[in-house]
Amino acid sequence: MTFNNTLIAIGRSRYLFDGIKHLHSKGFIFKAIVTEEAYDEYDIKHEDFRSLAQEIGAAFFMTKSMNIPELLSIIKTNNIKVGISANWKYTIQAGFLEMFDYGILNFHLGNLPDYKGNATVNWSIINGESSINGNIHKMELEVDTGDIISRKKIPISNDSYISDILKQAEKDVPYLYEEALEKLRQDPTFCLEKGTIHGLRCYPRLPEDGQINWLSDAVNISRLVRASSHPYKGAFSYLDGKKIIIWKAAVYPAVDKFLAVPGHIIRINKSDNTILVACKEGILEIQEIEFEGQVMSPTVICKSIRERFKFQ
Asked: 229 is in which domain, residue-wise?
């Protein structure tokens, strides 16, 4: 096999978009960009990929299937041996994968071989993981089971929000693609860690999964808030029957013992515009909320310790 600098790109999101731009700046030539409709939380849409394809002279395909004669012809005519991918949500057939001698290099954020699948960053925060890996692995028929070629660890602290992790991953992924390609250029058999079909599989989280159960403890509720925050829909609860989105919150160190029904507001801190809410175990300090489309401090609408958040 002879490695060349000619690629195709398949997928969505800023990971792929910035990866293409970076590799193009390093002399890699993209002959095709394949994408589909973006999720709401993605800041890069298919129109951005279309413009990028025009800018770098790549063919553009908006499709759910790789079985397009023009695309297949581009791959064969240009002797394309490797592709890059991120956030592609459709099945790719074995015959298509076999067209690439070096494989399709997919970006996945999760501690492979565990945390395969969907919502892996959300689940990692919820489960209290101390770090998460950005991986470039070879795409296989089974999701996230391919050999890992490059990897970088991102720490998760007790005050890390999901946006912090995603932003760091966006900075890392272009260089992870470049590193993986260079490793394969030097050794087509290179593998940092063998892939496997075994391991923890994550499934999608839905917006309603962000509802807070105050019968949980403060640590787990804090994790849910941080895992559900921007760019997602946010953790939420109900106060007097009105939906309140909680964007920022943290575990509050309890000094004295107390008795309160979980969800009850036990203190209003006017000095820093936060409120304290009783959980089954511990106290949650709520720092920022949204009500009826307006982001505000919780003290704007929470005025009394006779109020209680409830699960609906």
From this structure: 207-310
